[in-house]
Amino acid sequence: MTHWLPLSDPSDISVCRRNARQLAQAAGFSRPRTEEIAIVVSEAATNVLRYAKRGRCLLQQMPGIGGPRLAMVVVDQGPGIDTLDKMMRDGSSSEGSAGLGLGAMQRLSDQFDIYSNRDEGTVVACEFQLRPYRPAAVDVAGLLVTHPGETRCGDAWDMTCVASNTASGGRLDLILCDGLGHGHRAADAAERVLKAFGQMRGRTPAAALADISDDIADTRGAVAACVAVASDGRRLSYASVGNIATIRARLGETKRFATRDGHLGGGVRSPFSDEISLQPGDTVILHSDGLLTLRDLHEKPALLMRSALLIAGKLMAENFRGRDDASLAVIKIAKEI
Prior knowledge:
There is one protein chain. The protein is of the alpha+beta class and 337 residues long. It has two domains: 125 residues, Histidine kinase-like ATPase, C-terminal domain (Heat Shock Protein 90), CATH 3.30.565; 196 residues, Phosphatase 2c, domain 1 (4-Layer Sandwich), CATH 3.60.40. The strands form three sheets. A five-stranded antiparallel β-sheet has the order 1-2-3-5-4, sandwiched between helices. The chain has a five-stranded antiparallel β-sheet with strand order 6-15-14-11-12, covered by helices on one side. It has a five-stranded antiparallel β-sheet with strand order 7-8-9-10-13. The protein is globular. Pfam families: HATPase_c_2, SpoIIE.
């Protein structure tokens, strides 16, 4: 489900809860776990109506190493939460909700994060894992939003681990792509990119993109960026073709990576590639042109300290252009490696 769900009426809470149940059941979550997920979504949506009057909810499945994950991002532009410590205690909740409070929402989630202040409103991000797993050095999340007039998203992303995350030479690979245009043909091209990516474990990002380009030559084509992060979180290899933006943000610096014009499936000579070092706390962001250009991320230290999913959710909510598909993936390097 890759459209924002509006939150402005009590009936919208039921819509969010129903969508959450459908996603959880399709992903293979047990019935009791599905109901816990529905409770968290319902509580988050109710809080928006109670305190901010209106907001938005994004629910979708994310790829994971141990199996699919569910992501919930709820955003509003309300007054923020002054008593966040109180609201994190079980039993403190909005009137008319389950009475759980943010603390219980945190307990029922595999990952929970919240960002709130008077100027920017509140973002709540929860992740639910079918089989809990997290690489030691990185936190990874990504979100998709479909063109408002389409039913299928022409953007896509995926991730995989090569060898064990604790083995020497192991790494995490991630690709983000944008099928040219939007609609069914763009979605078909993006799906072909991910299928080819899944068959190329262990190749360098540049070699993978070159081979993918050959594999999708009979499609509309796509632009893509691929990164490989070493298991210790210290190094990143990168390759790109077309206008996928890749950024490394850290306190005091926002570095934008170069790319090569063209698109996969279009006879590109070779992708642009590079390798850079990473530091504890670095954030690597990939996004399609369905989002506004992200600038000066290093000037947002409070946001860069949050989880990968919350960063992705806030940036998606604030920068979605609304006239194309959009995708964004975030790789957060642990503060201590």
